[in-house]
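Researcher: Structure for this, please.
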Amino acid sequence: MVCGAAEARAARVAGRMAAWRAHAYGAPAAELRLEAARVPPLTAPDHLLVRVRAASLNPLDRAMLEGYGSRVLNALRAAEGLCGWSSAGAGAGACAGGEGSEFPLVVGRDFVGTVARAGPAARARRGARVWGVLPPHRPGALADYVLARDAWVPYHRTAFYFADYTLGQ
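Model: Predicted structure, token format:
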């Protein structure tokens, strides 16, 4: 389901969020769609759910959208038991042969935001301002929320400030 800004804002209720997703490899601008997606649940004690304030689509993300590294990244997903998992939590296909498990794929790896939920083993707590970089096989920062492991989010006790920009607004 492709949706515009109004539909994406309406999706931000009842466990839903807006996310920029790809459904196939190819030209990045032609394949990204702003869609409603499920907010990813905390599934490990060290997980953080971060409300994204800003994220980037960098050159590596663009190359990945064109298929760069897809077999290796899918093999990493399979090794971690992420078959059928997507960064939006929707799941799509099987990991057979290391292909088909990534779509729909929420793109983006670099983000800043505020911790919305934290697992019991995470250092950062709710309300902490954080930044992070997701591993290449676990993208998902171009969305209202991103799921990250505590180790991927350097936590500093000193506050920092970020611009007041949010996705989809």
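Researcher: Any notable elements?
Model: DSSP finds four helices and seven strands in the chain. Residues 39 and 122 are 19 Å apart (CA to CA).
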